[in-house]
Amino acid sequence: MTVIIGLTGGIATGKSTVSNIIKSQGIPVVDADIISREVVMPEKEAYEKIVACFGDQILNDDKTINRAALGEIIFNDSEKRTMLNEIVHPAVRKEMKRQADAYQRSGESLVVMDIPLLFESNLTHMVDRTWLVYTAPELQLQRLINRDHFSEKQALSRIHSQMPITEKKELADVIIMNNGSLVELENDVLLLLNKQKNRPDN
Ligand SMILES: CC(C)(COP(=O)(O)OP(=O)(O)OC[C@H]1O[C@@H](n2cnc3c(N)ncnc32)[C@H](O)[C@@H]1O)[C@@H](O)C(=O)NCCC(=O)NCCS
Ligand SMILES: Nc1ncnc2c1ncn2[C@@H]1O[C@H](COP(=O)(O)OP(=O)(O)OP(=O)(O)O)[C@@H](O)[C@H]1O
User: Fold this and answer.
1) pTM for the model
2) Superfamily of domain 3-198
3) In the chain, what are the domain boundaries?
C-alpha cells in the first residue's frame, strides 16, 4: 500500500526546502509548482487560453509566459487570479494524479505531493495525510522579501492571496515548524520520515 502525504504551507514557508530533504532520502515528490510551469509552455493547451485571457503583454520576446508580469497582475486582482486558476489548475491536477498513480503502480510505499494550495483548492481528497511547513508570519514575510527581492507591498500581496498560515495550521495533521535553522529543519524532517516509515498506516 502507498501512503500519500500532502505537503503544504504558505508562500516561502519552506515547502521546497522540505521537499528537497525528502527527495534526498529517495522518496518521490510530485511538485505542483513544477507541473504548473510545464502545463503553460507554448505547445500546451492552457497557454493559448492564458494569452487569450491576459493579452500578449504577459509574453516574453520568445513567446513564453513572463511569469513576473503575470504574477504582478494576478497577485493584485482576485478576479484575475481566479481566472488564471480556472485555466491552469485542471491541467495541474490531472498531471499530479498521473504522476502519483504511476508511483503507486510501481509499488512506492510513500509518495509526497507538494501542493501550495492544498487547502485553498480543497485537494485533501488526493492525499492520506497533510503535513504543513509553518513559519511565523513575520518570518514568512522576511524570507519572501529576501528570496525574491520583492518590496514589502509585493510580498504582502502574495501572502494575502492565500489562506493565512495560522489558519492552515489548524487544518493540518502534522506541523513542521520552520522558525529555526536549516539544520534543525533537516533533523525534524528526517525524524518525521522515520516515524512515518515505522507507522505507515497513520
Ligand atoms: C502567477 C505565476 C505565473 C507566478 O509565477 P512565479 O514563477 O513568480 O511563482 P511560482 O509559480 O514559482 O509560485 C510561487 C508560489 O506562489 C504561490 N502561488 C502561485 N500561484 C498562486 C495562486 N494562484 N494563488 C495563491 N498563491 C499562489 C505558491 O505559494 C507558489 O509556491 C504562477 O505562480 C502561476 O501560474 N500561478 C497559477 C498556478 C498556481 O496556482 N500555482 C500554484 C500551485 S498549483
Ligand atoms: N530554516 C530556514 N532558515 C533560513 N532560511 C530558510 C529556512 N527555511 C527556508 N529558508 C529560505 O526561505 C526561503 C523560502 O523557502 P522555500 O523556497 O523552500 O519556500 P516555499 O514554501 O517552497 O516557497 P514557494 O511557496 O514560493 O514555493 C528560501 O530562500 C529558503 O532558502
Assistant:
1) 0.97
2) P-loop containing nucleotide triphosphate hydrolases (3.40.50.300)
3) 3-198
Q: What is the distance in A from the centroid of ligand 2 to the CA of 137?
A: 13
Sheet of 174-177: strand order equals 29-31, 110-114, 3-9, 129-134, 174-177
The model's pLDDT over 122-176, given as tens digits with 9 standing for 90+, comes to 999 999 999 999 999 999 999 999 999 999 999 999 999 999 999 999 999 999 9
Cβ–ligand 2 contact at 14 (below 6 Å): yes
Nearest CA to ligand 2 atom 31: 17
Cα(28) to ligand 2 centroid in Å equals: 20
Residue with CA at minimum distance from ligand 1 atom 40: 85
- Cα gap 179→63, rounded to integer Å: 40
Task: Kindly give the distance from the C-alpha atom of residue 55 to the centroid of ligand 2, in angstroms, as a whole number.
Answer: 32
Which helix (H) or strand (E) element contains residue 74? Answer: helix 67-74
